[in-house]
Write a structure and sequence with these properties.
Oligomer: single chain
CATH class: Alpha Beta
Order of helices and strands: EHEHEHEHEHEHHHE
Structural class: alpha/beta
Helix content: 40-55%
Length: 246
């Protein structure tokens, strides 16, 4: 197991799905974890309970990361509870599974706020508050490399996340901080299942070279590697984690 003893990690959107698995895996590796959530306190508390029962340290912090004031408060809470921040994993996101012609102004604004503005706000905050030699991982998506109907606004936001990742890696690299993104393919989560039929999911499964939909721990282990000392020479990269879809 990668050793993250005494490291402090913020994982946004970590009350469920991929984010929850990342939070628990980092805790098992020794990190003190800030579990961020926007609405579901019960789920966030459950993640923290699992971490503490396994001997880890955790605090759940409610913050809407699409609001820059809440992002500042999230970083404040991490430092108040654990004294520093070494790792930032930007996992919070939503999916609108509709054709572009069907997406409303309100839906488009919402996906921009949560999927893109939140990354900008947390990176900006991290610029002054992440410890030297820290690690940042942004969750993108393999849909940026595909032309899949009904993924237009989602793919647009994730493509922008990858560009922010590359540029921020150059801006902050002199402090030894690495910045990478991970692009999952289909992963069996509530977010992925929303709006899809069984046939939609089967078609996605058939695209994989490994013949299955991804699981949350498939992605969490890649994030664990990227935040470790072993990945110190990897920065400004997007890591495809899609079972060979592309």
């Amino acid at each position: 197991m990668t050793e993250l003893h005494e490291k402090v990690a913020i994982v946004t959107g970590s009350s469920r799905g991929i984010g929850a698995e990342i939070a628990m895996l980092l805790a098992r590796a020794g990190a003190k974890v800030v579990v961020n959530y926007a609405h579901n306190q019960r789920a966030a508390d459950d993640v923290c309970m699992k971490i503490t029962q396994a001997g880890g340290k955790c605090v759940a912090v409610r913050a809407d990361v699409s609001d820059s004031r809440d992002v500042k408060r999230l970083f404040d809470a991490a430092i108040e509870n654990f004294g520093r921040i070494d790792i930032l994993v930007n996992n919070a996101g939503i999916l609108i599974f509709k054709k572009i012609a069907e997406v409303t102004d309100e839906e488009f604004e919402r996906i921009l706020n949560i999927n893109l503005k939140s990354i900008f706000y947390t990176l900006r905050e991290a610029a002054g508050r992440l410890a030297d030699n820290g690690r940042i991982v942004n969750i993108s998506s393999t849909v940026t490399r595909l032309m899949l109907p009904k993924y237009g606004p989602y793919a647009a936001t994730k493509g922008a996340v990858e560009q922010l990742t590359r540029i921020f890696a150059r801006e902050i690299g002199e402090r030894g901080i690495t910045v990478n993104s991970v692009s999952p393919g289909p992963v069996y989560t509530e977010l992925f299942r929303a709006g899809k039929t069984a046939d939609d999911i089967q078609r996605m499964s058939d695209l994989s070279s490994l013949g299955r939909i991804g699981e949350v721990d498939d992605i969490a282990h890649i994030v664990l590697f990227l935040v470790s000392e072993e990945a110190r020479w990897i920065t400004g990269q997007d890591i495809g984690a899609n079972g060979g879809i592309i």
